[in-house]
Amino acid sequence: MAGLTFEKSLERLEEIVEELENSDLDIDKSLKVFEEGVKLSRLCAKKLDEAEKKIELLIKGEKGEFITELFSPPKTEDD
Q: What is the DSSP secondary structure assignment for residue 64, as one 8-state letter?
């Protein structure tokens, strides 16, 4: 699972949700699929955390020097 990209992991997560919502899986298969989803969810969260830590904006200070500032995503209606 470690070799999966964020996009592929998210795509598989969407498939898992649809599979769990729209199928009549037995309990063992449901648990196996759910466990895969949890692992993928954690992988996606880890990749997002890593990306957030890497994102920095270069900003010129008052004296022309470059300073770094952590990226803060814009607020949304859900925030």
A: S
Quote the DSSP letter at residue 75: P
Distance CA 42, CA 45 (A): 5
Average pLDDT over residues 67-79: 66
Task: Please give the model's pTM, rounded to 2 decimal places.
Answer: 0.66
pLDDT at 52 over 80: no
**How many C-beta neighbours within 10 Å does residue 43 have?**
19
Nearest to 44 by CA among 10, 3, 2: 10
DSSP 20-74: HHH----HHHHHHHHHHHHHHHHHHHHHHHHHHHH-EEEEE-TTS-EEEEE--PP
Tell which residue, 7, 17, 18, 21, has the closest CA to residue 37. 17
